[in-house]
Amino acid sequence: MSQQQPPARSPRRHRPRALAAAGALVVLPLVTACGGGDDGKGADGGKAAPSVTAAPAAGVVAPAKVEVIAGLTGCKAKIRIDADELRQGLCHTKKADYLITTFPEEKFKETWLEEARVYGGKYLVGTRWVVSVKPALLESFRAKLGGTIRELRGIGPKPGGQ
Predict the structure, then answer these.
(1) Is the pTM of this model over 0.70?
(2) How many C-alpha atoms does 15 have within 13 Å on its Cβ side?
(3) Within 10 A of 56 (CB to CB), how many other CB atoms are there?
(4) Cα Dmax for the chain
(5) Half-sphere CA count of 155, side-chain side, radius 13 A
(6) Listed residue (128, 125, 130) closest to 149, CA to CA
(7) Which of the two ends of the chain, N or C, has the fewest CB atoms closer than 10 A to its terminal CB?
(8) Is the separation of the CB atoms in 129 and 69 below 8 Å?
(9) DSSP string, 30-64
(10) CB of 56 within 8 A of CB of 146?
């Protein structure tokens, strides 16, 4: 009694289907990352500028992953915090040291920004990520990553006056 082998399938016959599926997996995160859901209020309770996710110069959407955002800014991040609510990496470059913080959900980012409001300052904010860098570099980082520059008001009197 002989065993019959199933006919060999040509791998090329399924290539267009596999390429289409792979293409869909690449495009899906980019399309969903641009979704709405913003109520238009900043972390300080005031009206926030419209959210810009696409980087004007790079033409990409920065994903919410510390290592990828770090790469887009020209550094390799050293992970400082790896928790359920956030991941934070420290970047050290000749121009500046800065923090990249990512969040698994938008609500965690908003909570973090609300807590950071106590300290004041300007931050580059995107979909599920925040970059803390000196204000002089915010625009150049925005060109690479997209996002919105948010100024958070600290508590207490303003420096240099009332």
Answers:
(1) no
(2) 4
(3) 10
(4) 98
(5) 5
(6) 125
(7) N
(8) yes
(9) HHHHT-----SB-TTSSBPPPP--B-TTT--B--S
(10) yes
138: amino acid identity, one letter: L
Q: Give pLDDT tens digits for 94-142.
A: 989 999 999 999 999 999 999 999 999 999 999 999 999 999 999 999 9
Structure tokens at 127: 């979909």
Place of tokens 């980087």: 55
Tokens of 134: 């000196």
Phi then psi for 49, rounded to 5 degrees? Answer: -65, 155
* Radius of gyration of the chain from its Cα atoms, rounded to whole angstroms: 22
Q: What is the pLDDT of residue 4?
A: 55
Q: Report the C-alpha gap between 79 and 65 in whole angstroms.
A: 11
